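Record 1 of the preview.
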Amino acid sequence: MTTPPRILVTGPPGVGKTTFVRRVLELIPDVRATGFYTGEIRGRAGRTGFRLSTLDGRSAQLATAGGRGGPRVGRYGVHLESLDALGAEALEPGPGIDLVVIDEIGKMECLSPTFVRAARRALTGPVPVLGSVALVGGGFIPEAKRLPGVEVIPLSRDNRDSLPTTIAERLRAGAARASRDPSSR
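->
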């Protein structure tokens, strides 16, 4: 069995990792995907938190500025219950799924052992993966980058507009191979 593509983009905050992931997904609407992406929640005073949105349309707050209870990353309280209930569950490919999307493997997400287990299964499983990973960090962040078959691609302002088409083609081909190989499921 051929190893499916397991592609993680990395780069500094603000370089466009989430935008890149979403652009690749737009280029392959025929590929059945599961997973999630994250985004900022903005208010009058600027960024007030982060939202987790699954590819099937569900969403929840991932973190809140000044949030009380639970673990913290900087000024944000992380809502592990949302990450466990939506994010980790969305990484489990069911029948007919051709791609798992993980945006992102970062400090907040890695606070959840449930998320880490689900991400590890996805990154070592039979279904192609597209994701983003923090440039720096401990724990599962460097582990994810070193897992067998994982390709880490540095994203920059110079390549972020030209890479989506190439990556979309590789993922479409990998999804087609995986769907033809009954031993991959």
